[in-house]
Amino acid sequence: MTRTLAPLPLSLALSLSLALAACSQGQDGKGAAPDGSGDKAAAPPRTQAAAATAAPHEHAAHRGSPQAHADHSARHGGVVTMEGDNHVEIVVGPDGAVDLFVSDAVRTPIPPADASGTVSIGAVGDKAAKQMLTLAADPKGSLSAKGPPPEQKADYTWSLKVRGTSMSMTLTVPPGGTAKIGEARDHAAGDHKHGSPHGGVVQTLGDGHAEVKIEKGGEVTLWLLDASEKPRSAKGATATLRPVVAGAQEVKLEYDAKADALRGKIAPPAAEHPEVLVTVKPEGGSAATARVKLHLEGGQQGSGHEGHKGHEGR
């Protein structure tokens, strides 16, 4: 005997249908799964602005990064130069060994495998008579070559390609190698400690001295001094100056008869103690290059020139 189920009352059928629908959409009735995964799937993609707001650590991670072009200290006993975003520290040993240590804008070493090039050595100012050397990677992290012992002043010009970027620069190296440039800088600090005729920074340069002074607006004056720091005429001398900052251009200093000095102008320095590379060729003499740390005249108040004697020029 077959039993027939009686039909459910209409109100009970509607209640049961609504309950089943709610279960299929999730407990909240909005299509979300009980674990919330449905919300994630249905959420629209974040905009860049929203992502930046939601993840501020992505931007804060760079706050402790080294400042670009803030470090120009020699790490291998040589002379640090800069072109664009790359730095090159050149070391010329008394035996003629030449080492170029390449680093990026924040002085992170660039592997020798990422660079290549040559270095030419020749008499100061003589563009014809030069010895060309091919640089090779050295285990100590430099591009190296072996040249003649630096018994006379010579121009060392390197041409490099660093990670696809070309760069070239010339440094005049005194007899004995780049270490002598550092000795001259240290000696200059002692000279300056004993005073300077015009209140500038005195630097040993060649067989005499040079005194360099820079104003807040970028005006530069260079006086020539003899071995005893007595003024000597700058007439007939030539000089160039290049700030040790990214993208800086070399500036030629012109003779000023009234001041009997060489003068020029660079962009107003941002630092109170700007560093510059100065090359001076007295009339009838040989060119010499030195790196000088200057004191910005008219800079921060309360930091008078007298308070900086004894450490400038280092």
Annotation, overall tally of beta strands: 19
What percent strand? 35-45%
Annotated CATH architecture of the largest domain: Sandwich
| Assigned CATH class of the largest domain | Mainly Beta
Low-confidence stretches: 10-64, 186-194, 299-314
Largest sheet: 10 strands, mixed
Number of helices: 5
Quaternary assembly: single chain
Care to describe what's here?
This protein is an alpha+beta fold. The chain has two domains: 79-173, Immunoglobulin-like; 179-308, Immunoglobulin-like. Helix content is 15%, strand content 35%. The protein has helices spanning 10-25, 37-42, 48-54, 57-60, 179-193, and strands at residues 79-83, 86-92, 97-103, 115-123, 130-134, 136-137, 143-146, 154-162, 165-173, 201-205, 208-215, 219-225, 231-232, 238-243, 251-256, 261-265, 275-281, 288-293, 296-297. Strand 15 and strand 16 form a beta hairpin. The radius of gyration is 34 Å and the shape is globular. The chain starts with 9 loop residues before the first helix and ends in a 17-residue tail after the last strand.
